[in-house]
Design a protein that fits this description.
Blueprint (H helix, E strand, L loop, with lengths): L2 E13 L4 E13 L3 E5 L6 H8 L7 E6 L2 E2 L7 E4 L11 H5 L1 H5 L6 H13 L15 H13 L5 E5 L7 H17 L3 E5 L3 H7 L2 E5 L6 E6 L7 H4 L5 H12 L1
Parallel strand pairs: 3-8, 3-9, 6-7, 7-8
Antiparallel strand pairs: 1-2, 1-4, 4-5, 9-10
Helix pairs in contact: 5-6, 7-9
């Protein structure tokens, strides 16, 4: 398999008024094309910092971050970012929200881009809602809109920063299935940060476990289940064993 994202001995530290904080220490890992990878670790260890470095929102203090053979650049356009909140604009229609990124990139009049956006809406059962406002949609539907808005830009890598944390438990289970299905169907590579071990297990091909700050990679766990969806994977007899092993690595 081809390696899409590589962290090579990445360090990150920042200054406060009192001292220098060492957040990441020699982070090294690889993510392969079409893989779904999750990062878990103790609270405050630097998981979101890794996403910000990957997106080019921060610059590594030392080391290299390579995407598809090229260094990450500031606000790298090859990367799509899905946040904790859907960040849909309530005064814009669903369609207007979907093409927002195209507007920013001055591509909103490109017939091929608009056709692709329309195709995604139809494929994932949102086309009939294209003229609705976000407040008229359920939480799960809003997250699908947010994901499609990102996919319209055709990123090489998707970053997901706890995108289900604002949803109630039952909705989270359904949206995890929906988001996983869309990402796999579109053959995208994804990197998820989450505090929820079960969520990471149910969605991932691989889980990267970090130590407490300054974070290092403690272990990389390859995941294999019989189920085809995140919800079905939770029923696998090996699920509990994986959960206990990862939980013990975090305490």
């Amino acid at each position: 398999m081809k390696s899409l994202l590589e962290f090579k001995n990445v360090k990150y530290f920042y200054q406060t008024k009192e001292s220098e904080i060492n957040a990441l220490e020699d982070i090294t890992f690889s993510i392969y094309e079409k893989d779904f990878t999750s990062i878990v670790g103790p609270s405050g260890c630097g998981k979101t910092t890794i996403l910000s470095l990957t997106a080019g929102l921060l610059t590594a203090s030392e080391g290299e971050i390579i995407l598809n053979g090229q260094p990450i650049t500031k606000n790298d356009g090859r990367i799509g970012y899905m946040f904790q909140r859907d960040h849909l604009f309530e005064w814009r229609s669903i369609w207007q929200n979907i093409i927002l990124g195209l507007e920013v990139q001055k591509k909103h009049k490109d017939p091929e881009k608009l056709a692709f956006a329309e195709q995604l809406l139809k494929k994932y059962d949102l086309y009939n809602f294209k003229n609705k406002k976000p407040r008229q949609l359920s939480g799960g539907m809003r997250q699908r809109v947010a994901l499609i808005r990102t996919l319209v830009l055709e990123p090489e890598l998707l970053l997901l920063d706890e995108p289900f944390s604002a949803l109630d438990f039952q909705t989270r289970l359904k949206v995890c299935d929906d988001v996983y299905d869309i990402i796999k169907s579109e053959q995208k590579t994804a990197l998820l940060v989450t505090h929820d071990i079960s969520e990471a297990l149910s969605m991932s091909d691989k889980i990267i476990i970090l130590t407490k700050r300054p974070a290092k990679v403690k272990e990389v766990v390859e995941i294999s289940f019989q189920g085809q969806t995140p919800l079905a994977k939770r029923e696998d007899k090996e699920f509990g064993k994986y959960f206990e092993m990862i939980w013990r690595n975090l305490v």
